[in-house]
Amino acid sequence: MARILVTGAAGFIGSHTADLLLQEGNEVWGIDNLRTGRMSNLSAASQSPRFHFVRADVAKEKPCDELMEKAKPAAVIHLAALVSVPESFEQPDENFRLNLTATHVIAEAAHRHGVKRIVFASSAAVYGRAESFPLDERGITIPVSPYGAAKLASESLLAGYAESFGLTVRSCRYFNVFGPRQDPSSPYSGVISRFWEKLGQGSQPTVFGDGEQTRDFIYVGDVARANLLAATMPEVHSGVANICTGRPTSINNLVQTMARLLGREVNPIHVAPRQGDIRHSLGSPQAAQALLGFSASTSLADGLQALFLRRDADQHG
Ligand code: UD1
Fold first, then answer.
1. How much is the pLDDT for 30?
2. Which residues contact 40 (CB under 8 A, 6 or more apart)?
3. Taking a C-beta distance cutoff of 8 angstroms, is the pair 81, 121 a contact?
4. CA angle 230-79-150, nearest 5°?
5. Pocket residues for ligand 1 (CB within 6 Å)?
6. Which domains are seen in the chain, by residue range?
7. How far, in Å, CA of 194 to CA of 186, rounded?
8. Closest residue (by CA) to atom 14 of ligand 1?
9. What is the pLDDT of residues 225-244, one digit of tens each?
10. From ligand 1's centre to the CA of 277, what distance in Å?
């Protein structure tokens, strides 16, 4: 059993991570300002006597300091963030505050309170417009958004803390994460949550362009497991790892898989390609295997099935 602090605990990935940590017998301290996170995501976690929650802003020093003092965690999993790439263009100051200042506040508080390990939620967005696939952690990183830039800067800041103060820092570059509790409400929400919402409303999904663009979709339960391993594995190596499957799926293929699982025909509406879209994104999963002993185990179909069952569970109480 370990005591783990999860920032952004009420978010999509944060709440699944908290659930898994609790399931494995750990004590979890969650912090979230509920800007995009929701308490309803924590309904299972809140049942546990080993779960504690504080509503506060991670970019503010005082609440983080007080929380580290109280919780004395063995590790921090830092997931709190401004999560939307388009929003990072619209609100660059908030992007800087929530995606970089917050990392500094967490690193400092961890250092002051003798916390030995930080797991950081980075993103495939640090690669920007890379052209050679699969994307490898040693490859070039030229972010093309304020979001990607802040994530890359946070990785560097934390790597500096690891070297300077002997902390173990694992930066996890998540690829296209999907699963229950992902918010479909913005036009920029993840494609699977958008398609699932449309299909639930009895409408057809919209495919941008020819649908032959590909992504590396990873199920949120696998991402939670990667976070757990990064936070609790006894090895002390710091490093950066893609959290991906290494398998490409085209958007057309995604539509077909959803149709097959639902047992009905899906006829997507094709519109013009989305401006700024990248054609392909595919990660190499090898570093995650070497650093964390992690490999994704949920297929796209199984992950979609879990998402569909959750909708049924929600609808039927
Ligand atoms: C992700 C980010 C995005 C960022 C980009 C940078 C998410 C949810 N989005 O986009 O903000 O700019 O990385 O690399 O993490 N699609 C459709 N129909 C839809 C929605 C999407 O066809 O209704 C297509 C898109 O054109 C795209 C693919 O699905 O080709 C995946 O889209 P999305 O889920 O937004 O992820 P990314 O494009 O990887």
1. 98
2. none
3. yes
4. 105
5. 85-86, 125, 176, 188-191, 194, 206-208, 213, 215, 251, 274, 277-278, 281
6. 3-177+219-244+283-298 (3.40.50.720)
7. 8
8. 125
9. 999 999 999 888 999 999 99
10. 7
